[in-house]
Amino acid sequence: MTTPATPTRTTAPLPHWETIPDDLPAAIVEVKRALRARIAASGRSVADVFAEVEDRIRVEVADIGATLARGEQVWPVLDYADVEAGTIAPELVAAVQRRGCAVIRGHFPRERAQAWDRSVVEYVERNRFFENYRGPADDFFGSVMSNPEIYPIYWSPAQMQARQNPRMATVQSFLNARWTHTSEGRRWFDPDRDTMYPDRIRRRPPGATSGGLGAHLDPGCLDLWMTEGYQQHFRHLFDGNVAAYDPWDAAYRTEAAQYPGSTMCSAFRTFQGWTALSEMRHDQGVLHTVPIPLAMAYLMLRPLLDDVPADSMCGVALNQAFPVTERWHPLLLEALTPIPDVQPGDSVWWHCDMIHSVAPVTDQQGWGNVMYIPAAPWCAKNEAYLESVRAAFRAGDSPSDFPAENYERDWDGRFTEADLTAIGRHGLGL
Known about the structure:
Largest sheet: 7 strands, mixed
Distance between the termini: 39 Å
Structural class: alpha+beta
CATH superfamily: B-lactam Antibiotic, Isopenicillin N Synthase, Chain
Strand content: 5-15%
CATH class: Mainly Beta
Shape: globular
């Protein structure tokens, strides 16, 4: 049973499903038909609107290729000292907006990051993690083939110290401010208060062979087309008005319903991110992105073209990361670009809707160690997710966005509520 959404114009309302529909293929057919009709009401065809998006993206892909050919860096690189002092050059701020990603040099002192790395090792070894490791608990990281590469731990002193560090809060506020947080007469999030979003650790040893991760993104799956909040968020695309679509406007998405699953994020992150705990060269199985924020418009409109089966969203499915493939999105994959070389204490950030992958590597040179810490500003969606985060923190469980592995329940040295600073307590909503 569908419920009509409130239309943004005097056109036929869009059907929407705030929970997973009983007949999913039929619902996909229905919503695609309605979206095509909504676009047609603008006086343009889906093909016309998609062609406009494609032309704009071709310009960005060509510029990225030319930049790389000149031996220049595509990723904007900022110094933490400038972020803290508010003295970042305007052209660098503009580059972050255009590329949707950034590296923050010296986010933490090198010695601090290396001490955190040693602390993680001591924490897992003291608690016999390797003897008790049961293997990957989800298909998503099963492809990396390193044993283990992703440590499903969340509450180590190192992770929690980094999450509640004032230097982290400074960078998160800067990144949140790249977004429009007030629009449509509403305030969608607080850019200066972050919500603690616990994630895992990656430690890949020298000599490792890893299968990497294919190109994907993490903001949701079929709910991006099928729930009312996301339909409102992408309203300009579905009205055929590409010029009005702004990938930096948070309107409606901080309240949008999301279908449950263990391979995507239930919170709203302005940027995904990680902090380096070791040196990493750009050619050693590192993160790649398609540094084009507008690519989301391509992904949202692509399933509406005539060459896609009526009940298909170009491979997007429940409880799976949003795939980006040569079959449906070849233009976008031309722009996959690796991060620059990074040092311990540098941090790496990319827009939450940005396509990203991890390159495979054989016989890796050096360690590849990171802590995943995003920017997740205070908003209705994140405040709701915090209830489960607090319960997991107190119990030593895996947060509900992740497989219920719960390794840390009885671990010695786990971070406790008594160790929280004011920033940490604020981030957990305490």
